[in-house]
Amino acid sequence: MIAVLGSANLDLVVTVERAPGRGETVTGRTFATLPGGKGANQALAAARAGGDVAFLGAVGDDDFGRRIRELLADAGVDVSGLAVSDQPTGTAHITVDGTGDNSIVVVPGANGTVTALTDAHRATIDRAELLLLQLELPLDLVVEAARYAHAREIPVVLTPAPAVPLPEELLEAVDILVPNEHEAALLAGIDDPIAAAEQLTRLCDDVVVTLGARGAAWLSGGETIPVPAFPVQAVDTTAAGDTFVGVMAAGLAGGLQLGGALHRASAAAALSVQRPGASSSMPDRAEIDAFLAE
Ligand code: ADP
């Protein structure tokens, strides 16, 4: 089982020809409300890809929260560890421009109330083959969870997003770090993403730096292994990274080595960027298999 301890948000998504500059107003094209949050996205991507997933986090006692719970449960995710908080469900305010690039403001809400591991969290992590973490819950909790799992030899996968400087004690408890190029640069203090990832392998065994349409690079034991992207026409890259990580985790839990899991992750992310939205764009296992068989 894959345990995901992370955020659940409702994404409020606007599409525009060109994102507004400071002080500027532009007319949007479309507006939609879509379930998201990096934690929920990764849980959903892993479950759609065939993983057995338990989600740990919190939503508000509101329609947004009920919608997210239902979506996860319908995908087969165990939501018994999804608490109901007195704060509203977290929201992410996303602008997608005409080229498919996005900019995002996150308001944590209920996610901010998950401040310490509970006995129920520990019991789920104890049973997990893999723990997925991101940085949309309070940092102290992420550190506590990583260290708890690491001490029990449960592999920890961290998506260091949104990017903030991280304590070494967190990175030392992470087995697979999956930054995008901006996050890798910020964490290592080096602009070049490959050099930055190389630096980060001093603290984490495996570092997979994602490079958007250029694919990803897996750094391990002094080697740099390219993970090619699939050439596709991107319309919305929201949650490409979360799809990538969720599908990678499903592959690992299903018995693949990391290289094989990354190949599937790249295929799944390529499928997801061809469709709008976060959760709505994630492929299922059959679709990934069919794409890889083409
Ligand atoms: P994030 O969404 O976290 O910023 P990236 O943009 O690096 O992450 O994308 C994650 C992965 O998604 C990439 O490593 C790649 O496999 C895939 N991907 C992203 N953009 C494209 C694209 N335009 N075409 C094909 N694959 C893509």
UniProtKB/TrEMBL annotation:
<comment type="subunit">
    <text>Homodimer.</text>
</comment>
<feature type="binding site">
    <location>
        <begin position="9"/>
        <end position="11"/>
    </location>
    <ligand>
        <name>substrate</name>
    </ligand>
</feature>
<dbReference type="GO" id="GO:0019303">
    <property type="term" value="P:D-ribose catabolic process"/>
</dbReference>
<keyword id="KW-0963">Cytoplasm</keyword>
<comment type="pathway">
    <text>Carbohydrate metabolism; D-ribose degradation; D-ribose 5-phosphate from beta-D-ribopyranose: step 2/2.</text>
</comment>
<comment type="similarity">
    <text>Belongs to the carbohydrate kinase PfkB family. Ribokinase subfamily.</text>
</comment>
<feature type="binding site">
    <location>
        <begin position="37"/>
        <end position="41"/>
    </location>
    <ligand>
        <name>substrate</name>
    </ligand>
</feature>
<keyword id="KW-0460">Magnesium</keyword>
<feature type="binding site">
    <location>
        <position position="136"/>
    </location>
    <ligand>
        <name>substrate</name>
    </ligand>
</feature>
<feature type="binding site">
    <location>
        <begin position="241"/>
        <end position="242"/>
    </location>
    <ligand>
        <name>ATP</name>
    </ligand>
</feature>
<keyword id="KW-0119">Carbohydrate metabolism</keyword>
<feature type="binding site">
    <location>
        <position position="180"/>
    </location>
    <ligand>
        <name>ATP</name>
    </ligand>
</feature>
<dbReference type="InterPro" id="IPR002139">
    <property type="entry name" value="Ribo/fructo_kinase"/>
</dbReference>
<dbReference type="InterPro" id="IPR011877">
    <property type="entry name" value="Ribokinase"/>
</dbReference>
<keyword id="KW-0630">Potassium</keyword>
<feature type="binding site">
    <location>
        <position position="272"/>
    </location>
    <ligand>
        <name>K(+)</name>
    </ligand>
</feature>
<feature type="active site" description="Proton acceptor">
    <location>
        <position position="242"/>
    </location>
</feature>
<feature type="binding site">
    <location>
        <position position="281"/>
    </location>
    <ligand>
        <name>K(+)</name>
    </ligand>
</feature>
<feature type="binding site">
    <location>
        <position position="277"/>
    </location>
    <ligand>
        <name>K(+)</name>
    </ligand>
</feature>
<dbReference type="GO" id="GO:0005829">
    <property type="term" value="C:cytosol"/>
</dbReference>
<keyword id="KW-0418">Kinase</keyword>
<protein>
    <recommendedName>
        <fullName>Ribokinase</fullName>
        <ecNumber>2.7.1.15</ecNumber>
    </recommendedName>
</protein>
<keyword id="KW-0479">Metal-binding</keyword>
<dbReference type="InterPro" id="IPR029056">
    <property type="entry name" value="Ribokinase-like"/>
</dbReference>
<comment type="function">
    <text>Catalyzes the phosphorylation of ribose at O-5 in a reaction requiring ATP and magnesium. The resulting D-ribose-5-phosphate can then be used either for sythesis of nucleotides, histidine, and tryptophan, or as a component of the pentose phosphate pathway.</text>
</comment>
<feature type="binding site">
    <location>
        <position position="275"/>
    </location>
    <ligand>
        <name>K(+)</name>
    </ligand>
</feature>
<keyword id="KW-0808">Transferase</keyword>
<dbReference type="Pfam" id="PF00294">
    <property type="entry name" value="PfkB"/>
</dbReference>
<dbReference type="GO" id="GO:0004747">
    <property type="term" value="F:ribokinase activity"/>
</dbReference>
<dbReference type="InterPro" id="IPR011611">
    <property type="entry name" value="PfkB_dom"/>
</dbReference>
<dbReference type="GO" id="GO:0005524">
    <property type="term" value="F:ATP binding"/>
</dbReference>
<feature type="binding site">
    <location>
        <position position="242"/>
    </location>
    <ligand>
        <name>substrate</name>
    </ligand>
</feature>
<keyword id="KW-0547">Nucleotide-binding</keyword>
<feature type="binding site">
    <location>
        <begin position="210"/>
        <end position="215"/>
    </location>
    <ligand>
        <name>ATP</name>
    </ligand>
</feature>
<dbReference type="GO" id="GO:0046872">
    <property type="term" value="F:metal ion binding"/>
</dbReference>
<feature type="domain" description="Carbohydrate kinase PfkB">
    <location>
        <begin position="2"/>
        <end position="284"/>
    </location>
</feature>
<feature type="binding site">
    <location>
        <position position="236"/>
    </location>
    <ligand>
        <name>K(+)</name>
    </ligand>
</feature>
<keyword id="KW-0067">ATP-binding</keyword>
<feature type="binding site">
    <location>
        <position position="238"/>
    </location>
    <ligand>
        <name>K(+)</name>
    </ligand>
</feature>
